[in-house]
Amino acid sequence: MDEKYDAIILGTGVSECVLSALLSVDGKKVLHMDRNDYYGADAASLNLTQLWARFREGQEPPKDIGRDRDYAIDLIPKFMMANGELTKMLVHTDVTRYLEFKQIAASYVYRDGRIAKVPATEMEAVRSSLMGLFEKRRAKKFFEFIQNWRDEDPATHQGQDLDGTPMTKIYDYFGLEAGTRDFIGHAMALHQDDAYLQRPARETYDRILLYTSSMARYGKSPYIYPLYGLGELPQGFARLSAIYGGTYMLDKQVDEIVVDAETGKFSGVRCGDETVHADMVIGDPSYFRAGVGEKKTPLVRETAKVVRAICFLKHPIPNTDNADSVQLIIPQNQVGRKHDIYVACLSSAQNICANGLYVAQVSTIVESSTPELELKPGLDLLGPIYEKFLQISPLEEPINSGADDKIFITRSLDSQSHFESLVDDVRDVWRRATDGKPLDLKKRAEDEGAQVQA
């Protein structure tokens, strides 16, 4: 390990593998390491043996639920927006050739004590139980306003200003009921809480357009998912990095982040008696909690905690029309919380578990000293639970930009149901690590008109 690298990457989460691939394609010499013997880091997809080893140490998985190779259970549940930034990134880098995707069958929202399907077509919207007849007319006018808006044409603005008006005022203008606002803001714009109501409406406008354009891509729902689990995503980007000369080392324990005593800048990474040197390091927060150098000042801070329950079911989620895969959102107001609760359900249709089983994951931001109880509204919708695994994870972010010490840290994967914030983080780290150079991936994807097949 005497070689000098342009960059060392620590952790094989999606963000780290995307950055590793982008740097390799950019001609940089990259060494990528992970303490685990599998890809994905804290967002890996585990087989049965790995899952039981993590949550039920010393116990064997039941013999009646299939073989190890039938399973790829995500530790962090997320779907991809069909027209989202991660999808565009996959297309642009051609990582799609390593992956297969399947569309999520349906999207649901919890409203007034029951589950309702988020309309996927105009006919479904007409029949939907989410709104009464008069409210449907008001909502129709709101969506026509969103679809018809053109920045350059004041005639489409109806006197509204998306950049200067809070979203709550736009809702007021169309006279939308509280339940409709919940549905639009949380099940379509996918906001996690109601703070968005006081922010400029442009943000929610953009999010609704992303949802509707993703829905238009394949119909049924706006979400897609890689067959064999989310762990396929980092592996796909790792293959791209390797093609361009990136070196990968799994099951490699990192003993020390080495910093030059005089300059305070990153120097290398020590593994046992060996130290490998590079100009910079990029890594997930778990590698930097104890700090670096002599001061050992932490380089990351915790912003929140997420509680997630992985549940094995022997049936689809009740009241979802026997769908083989579902996204179900419980808006905060519906259950008296500050943050939404997300339920994601997959099955053998996505090649993540054995036939006859379903894997439902319930997650939310922790708000109390009894995190598991906070999941109860979601768990209660699942019916009988065969097996349940609970985990509480910190959400962490870097304290510094990394410009001074050449240590660039990604953010933890958040509790949101999709990957859009991950792409924001990748762009941010890229900008910081390349002295302000923006990451622009849109041109090729748009020019070629390529898309993910689902």
From TrEMBL:
For the biological process aspect of GO, one term held by this record is: protein transport
UniProt feature coiled coil, ranges: none
Instruction: Write down the SUPFAM superfamilies for this protein, in alphabetical order.
Output: FAD-linked reductases, C-terminal domain (SSF54373), FAD/NAD(P)-binding domain (SSF51905)
What GO MF terms are annotated?
A: Rab GDP-dissociation inhibitor activity
Q: Which InterPro entries match?
A: FAD/NAD-bd_sf (IPR036188), GDP_dissociation_inhibitor (IPR018203), RabGDI (IPR000806)
Family affiliation? Belongs to the Rab GDI family.
Q: What is this protein called in UniProt?
A: Rab GDP dissociation inhibitor
Task: Name the source organism.
Answer: Tilletiopsis washingtonensis
